[in-house]
Specification:
The complex is a heterodimer of chains A (236) and B (717). Chain A is mainly α and 236 residues long. Chain A contains 11 helices and no strands. Chain B is built from 20 helices and 19 strands. Chain B has 717 residues and is of the alpha/beta class. The chains are: A mainly alpha (236), B alpha/beta (717). Chains A and B meet through helix 2 and helix 10 of A and helix 1, helix 3, helix 5, helix 7 and helix 10 of B.
């Protein structure tokens, strides 16, 4: 069994940060905030967060914040709940949550909760349980979980539970490992895991492992690493 | 993207890609400038269209398009409005061709249609293409399924009904479209049938089918008011799929759902209680008179100042309070507060408890008091699925005090509990002639068709089920379902041995899932042991203490049964002393209901974290605990962490101050879980040897957390 070549991974992550002109980088410019979260968290796990310039990162993040309190994926891009979470997560990673107006960000998240407890991604109204998780996770990091209507949020998530114990993006939506990760995560944070049929969902999740050992995201689909990661976390 | 191998780029490819990147970068920055300056000219719009066709994931551009539409709408006449929307729809189409899974594109389409614009032909062709390209595209399915309106007979025969393959229906907010294209649940059901007909391996279709059917059954729509008939047809349906390709998962998951729908009874039922109906509870008594045999009905408690009353339901319920559950007795002076017994601080639970504070009641010696409980006294008890508790049911029991409760004399310690075989004596008979299990509350009211349906499934699948793993598992599940439909103590109809054999075979056939099969095996085994007098008796023993008085604890001994999980707790509420040592328990979920438990042996199991001991926090009477020789501290990752209410869950009140004082200079991260479990217990006897965590530091910490402790690791403190 080999060992993780941590140095190579660190070098790769740092190089990606610098390579702003590659095609891959350009085409994903709008979600750089997400990329920052993934890259920096990986660096942190390997104990190498000090290889990046904290101030540079923090000022870039703050330049992505809008009047509404929400953050965009990169400079000039519109605010969205996805990038707001990533921004808060990265600031928390650097222990720099004090540079942001916590209540302002909270208000942005709170404004995105709908009557039925669901959350929209932004002012344009797309609803998805992913956003429920994002909202709950974000306000929880900011210690403001009580500012959203937790009971309704949980009720909405449960309404997305399916015949196989899994969760979809909206009520009636097919179970998907990614959605399950989000819903289980949200229910964990709000202390509502007893509302899940653990045995049924557990079985469905186990059945995602294919012969090769990899994990797929839904029945009869190909295995992929994203599903693998989401599944492992969801299974806890 | 799935299935694309990673290759290093060749030099010519590199430069091409570089140029491409430069072009896209230019496009994006020009777009951002337009967006920033709110420029919605034709030129600007064309630019954004070009961007989205190349990069449909650029979400800000979709926002920009919406803003542009809103801006240009105010300046257009009705003709150009139509073409304005057409333009948007065309753009989405082009973007979806680039990436048919783009969330941004699908949402933009919905948004456009919500503005009251639709082009049915367009939508038809679009969905046609996408569902053919990928029948599992859940975006397309969601699009179809969005809040289907009730069936409307008159509108049924509109011409577009013929284009039956690729319809969809919209949310109530999309009113304009829905007036045109009202599709019913029934039509959607037919659609799923067609899709399944084309390819059985369409999990998406089966899933949608289950969602639509649930809806139809719940509404009791015309033709769907008889659950039996519907389920019968579905069984036939899925049988075709399974027999055609037994390896495909879709049919099997749907089948599992059908079994669940067949067996489950919506309304919540009380399946067990302690005290049981007609029992007598003796306080501070002289103990079980061994000549009479063991009585499960009548219990003797000693040294207790609170009496728990436990209600055990067949599913999680909420709304248990002093108005829905009336408790009448001359000894009660105040309203009782019912608490849900859940490991999380949830307001719904399968088990509810109330504590009678005997100390406040001035009970006279040798007098018998009766207590009457009416469950469902008023409406309000509701299951988490929204079903209400039925007609009120009653439990009456008696309470008497044999001797006065005396505080233990200072210096007089309880003796060390020993779990050795020699300290136990088998009980040879029960006192009652009728075995009164707690389950006599629960009389299955299912009609015969349930049993027949399951029976038929077993027959149909017998041949198919023999070799493959999923076949054996389904058979085990079917047999378990069948058994659950007949009264628990009725041994004639039980297939327990067959089920146990199946799970044992499955552990060998499918080792990657062996832990799951082991859990199921444990549950069935415990069911078998606890459901009848003759199977339970061998496990019941008297615990002999040194003085050999008549007073003796009854201990339920369930060692060496390879149990990986606890179950049938509803039959075990009477237990005060329990030996679960030498098993394979990774969790003790369910144990929180055993409120009378005062001595518990969990040694030689596989408990891997303190959070796995979560249920113990509810056991107020627990005095003696043996968790020696487990795996506490052996695992760096605690997989049970989120199952136990913790400071991380935002629902827990954690005694931080006391923790900090006790923890002192030790590493808090190592001990907070142990603190969480032990700080609310009043143990007198604890054994933690043989666990990786139990070093000197930990040991001295735990002694501080438990001031009532007299014995640690079998030694007097």
């Amino acid at each position: 069994m080999g060992e993780l070549v941590a140095d190579k991974h660190v070098r790769y992550i740092l190089s990606v940060e610098k390579k702003k002109d590659s095609f891959e980088s350009v085409v994903m410019e709008h979600l750089r905030m997400n990329g920052a979260y993934w890259g920096l968290t990986a660096l942190d796990i390997m104990g190498k967060l000090d290889t990046v310039d904290t101030n540079e990162v923090v000022s870039w993040i703050m330049s992505c914040q809008h009047e509404s309190g929400g953050f965009g994926g990169n400079v000039g891009h519109d605010p969205h709940i996805l990038y707001t979470l990533s921004a808060v997560q990265v600031l928390a990673l650097f222990n720099k949550l004090d540079v942001v107006d916590v209540d302002k960000v909270t208000n942005y998240i709170v404004s995105l909760q709908n009557e039925d407890g669901s959350f929209s991604g932004d002012i344009w109204g797309e609803v998805d349980t992913r956003f429920s998780y994002i909202a709950i996770c974000c306000v929880s990091i900011l210690h403001r979980l009580d500012r959203i209507n937790v009971e309704k949020a949980v009720k909405y998530i449960i309404s997305c539970k399916n015949m196989d114990g899994g969760f979809g993006c909206t009520p009636g939506g097919e179970s998907h490992a990614g959605q399950i990760f989000c819903c289980v995560g949200a229910l964990a944070i709000t202390g509502s895991l007893d509302l899940i049929d653990k045995d049924l969902l557990g079985w469905w999740l186990c059945e995602r492992q294919v012969k090769s050992g990899g994990l797929n995201g839904r029945p009869e689909k190909l295995p992929d690493i994203m599903s693998g990661m989401l599944l492992m976390v969801g299974s806890f | 993207m799935h299935g694309r191998p990673r290759k290093p780029l060749k030099e010519e490819d590199e430069s091409v890609l570089s140029a491409k990147a430069e072009k896209l970068r230019l496009l994006q920055s020009q777009f951002l400038a337009n967006h920033q300056n709110r420029i919605y000219s034709k030129e600007a719009l064309d630019l954004s269209a070009k961007l989205l066709e190349n990069n449909p994931e650029c979400y800000t551009a979709w926002n920009y398009r919406k803003l542009a539409v809103q801006h240009n709408l105010s300046q257009s006449d009705s003709d150009s409005v139509a073409s304005l929307f057409d333009q948007e729809l065309k753009l989405v189409e082009n973007a979806l061709r680039k990436n048919f899974k783009s969330y941004g594109a699908w949402h933009h389409r919905k948004w456009v249609l919500s503005k009251g614009h639709s082009s049915i032909d367009h939508e038809m062709r679009l969905l046609n293409g996408f569902q053919k390209a990928d029948p599992r595209n859940f975006h397309a399915w969601n699009y179809r399924r969005l809040n289907i309106l009730p069936f409307d007979k008159e509108k049924k025969n509109l011409p577009f009904e013929r284009l039956v393959s690729f319809f969809f229906c919209f949310d109530i907010t999309f009113r304009f479209v829905t007036d045109l294209m009202k599709r019913s649940d029934e039509d959607e059901l037919k659609y799923t049938e067609e899709v399944i007909g084309e390819n059985f391996s369409n999990y998406s279709a089966w899933h949608n089918r289950s969602a639509i059917l649930s809806n139809l059954l719940k509404r009791k729509a015309e033709g769907f008011s008889h659950k039996e008939k519907v389920l019968q047809e579905e069984y036939e349906h899925v049988r075709n799929a399974i027999f055609t390709d037994p390896d495909d998962q879709s049919g099997w998951f749907y089948h599992l759902w059908l079994i669940d729908q067949t067996v489950k009874n919506g309304a919540p039922l009380l399946v067990s209680s302690w005290p049981s109906r007609g029992s007598t509870i003796t306080l501070n008594g002289h103990g079980n008179n061994r000549l009479h045999g063991l009585s499960l009905l009548n219990s003797t408690l000693s040294g207790t100042t609170t009496l728990p009353i436990i209600l055990y339901f067949n599913q999680a319920v909420e709304g248990i309070n002093s108005s829905t559950v009336a408790v009448k007795s001359e000894i009660l002076k105040e309203d009782l507060v019912w608490k849900p017994l859940s490991v999380n601080n949830s307001s719904t639970a399968q088990v509810w408890v109330v504590y009678l504070k005997l100390g406040n009641m001035e009970l006279q010696l040798s007098k018998t008091y009766s207590i009457e409980i009416t469950i469902g006294y008023s409406a309000g008890i509701v299951s988490s699925n929204g079903y209400h508790y039925g007609d009120p049911s009653q439990i009456a029991f008696e309470l008497c005090v044999q001797t006065a409760h005396t505080e233990p004399v200072e210096g007089q310690y309880p003796k060390l509990t020993s779990w050795k075989d020699s300290d136990f004596q088998k009980i040879d008979h029960f006192e009652e002639s009728n075995f009164v299990t707690s389950t006599d509350h629960h009389i299955p009211t299912t009609s015969n068709w349930c049993r027949e349906a399951i029976d038929e499934e077993i027959t149909n699948y017998q041949d198919l089920l023999s070799d493959c793993k999923i076949g054996k598992l389904t058979l085990a599940r079917l047999l378990t379902a069948l058994d659950s439909l007949s009264p628990e103590h009725d041994k004639r109809k039980k297939h327990t041995d067959e089920i146990l054999k199946l799970y044992t075979e499955l552990m060998k056939l499918d080792p990657t899932h062996s832990l799951y099969y082991k859990d199921e095996h444990s549950l069935v085994l415990l069911q078998q042991i606890t459901s009848s007098e003759e199977s339970l008796l061998p496990h019941c023993h008297y615990y002999k203490d040194a003085t050999e008085t008549n007073t003796s604890y009854v201990c339920l001994r369930l060692q060496n049964l390879s149990l990986s999980r606890m179950g049938s707790i509803k039959n075990l509420l009477w237990v005060q002393m329990l030996d679960l040592s030498h098993n394979e328990l990774r969790s003790i979920e369910g144990l929180e209901a055993m409120q009378l438990l005062s001595c518990l042996n969990l040694s030689h199991n596989k408990l891997g974290s303190f959070t796995a001991l979560g249920p113990l926090r509810s056991l107020k009477s627990l005095k003696v605990l043996n968790i020696s020789h487990n795996e506490l501290g052996s695992h760096s990752i605690d997989t049970r962490r989120y199952l136990c209410s913790s400071p991380l869950a935002h629902t827990e009140v954690f005694a931080w101050d006391r923790f900090e004082i006790l923890c002192g200079s030790y590493s808090a991260t190592k001990f907070w879980e142990a603190f969480l479990i032990f700080e609310s217990l009043n143990l007198t006897d604890l054994n933690i040897t043989g666990n990786a965590v139990a070093d000197e530091n930990f040991t001295s910490f735990i002694v501080k957390v438990l001031p009532t402790l007299k014995y640690l690791n079998d030694e007097e403190l």
